[in-house]
Structure formats: C-alpha cells, structure tokens
Amino acid sequence: MSATLETTGKTATATCAILRAESTYQGKQGFSYFHGISAESVGARGLCMHLLTIPPGGRAKAHLHESHETAIYVLSGQGQMWYGEHLEEHVTCGPGDLIYIPAGVPHLPANASHTEPCLAVLARTDPNDQESVVLRPDLEVFVPEGPESVA
Predict the structure, then answer these.
(1) pTM check: above 0.85
(2) How would you class 26 by CB atoms within 10 Å of its CB: exposed for 0-12, middle for 13-18, buried for 19 or more?
(3) For 53-111, how does the pLDDT look when each residue is reduced to its tens digit (9 = 90+)?
(4) In a domain, 133, yes or no
(5) What's the mean per-residue pLDDT of the chain?
(6) Secondary structure E strands in the chain
(7) Domain tally, the chain
(8) What's the pLDDT band for 151 if we cut at 50, 70, 90?
(9) Domain harbouring 130, CATH code
(10) Most buried residue among 16, 57, 111, 124 by CB atoms closer than 10 A?
(11) Domain extent for 60
C-alpha cells in the first residue's frame, strides 16, 4: 500500500485508521488521485474518500459510477462539470460548494481555470477505488475541448 497508515484500537478485524495523502494513483478517469480511504487501504465496506487536485485546464474522461453515489466538496479553485445522458447539463462550482452525483449519471468534471488548480474531497458509496468506474468515450464529443475559463 502506498499511503501511510496509522491505526488506533486493539482489534484486528475492525479498527480506526488515519491516512495521510502522501502518494497518488492514476484513475481510469484520467486524473491522479491521492490515496485515501477505501477497501484497499483500510478495509472500508461502504465508502471511499479521496483528495483530488485537478490541474489548471485539466479535465477528466466522461464516465459514470455504476450503482454508486458520489459527493464532492470543493476546497479551492473553480471546477465545472458536464452531466446528463449526453452531458447536456453544465454547472460551475467553487470553494465551499457541495456537489451530489447520483449513481449511474454520466459526468465529466474539469478545472474551469487555466491558471489555478482545483482541490476537492471526493466520497463515493463504492468502497473500491476504481471498481465502479465506467468510461463513456462516446460522450466526449458533447463537451468542448478546453474548459470554459473563469480565471
């Protein structure tokens, strides 16, 4: 495992854990995620939570999470997301915004700035890092190549 793990408690089957976001892994979506809470890292059974920095001008691949909901909290920067059956809906978000993505909804997140990173905490009801990710390359044509700049 790549993340630093400190455990508290005395039982080997169920215990508390503290992870430090010190290393990353490459997700199917095209972003580099900090290792976080998951089935792989701490044995989580019902959720995963990661830290994501979207670089200036960065964008993910269109995808969805089968049968799993996603919640996002934007810490800094300006994000944007296209979502819907054909990515026809568009929202922008910034620090303090909470975003909810229902299970099975195609989406494509991006950094709306060409100069500043966007930092967010992501949580999903799938305890596995990447198991429920389904790429949707057929939807890429519905989103402009570069992010719509807000900076």
Answers:
(1) no
(2) exposed
(3) 999 999 999 999 999 999 999 999 999 999 999 999 999 999 999 999 999 999 999 99
(4) yes
(5) 86
(6) 4-8, 16-20, 24-26, 32-37, 48-54, 63-65, 70-76, 79-83, 89-93, 98-101, 107-111, 118-124, 133-135
(7) 1
(8) very low
(9) 2.60.120.10
(10) 111
(11) 22-140
Asked if 105 and 64 touch (Cβ cutoff 8 Å), the reply is yes
Cα(134)–Cα(29) distance, rounded to whole angstroms? 9
- Tokens representing residue 126 in the block: 């799938």
d(CA 59, CA 108): 7
Give the pLDDT confidence score for residue 61 in this predicted structure. Answer: 93
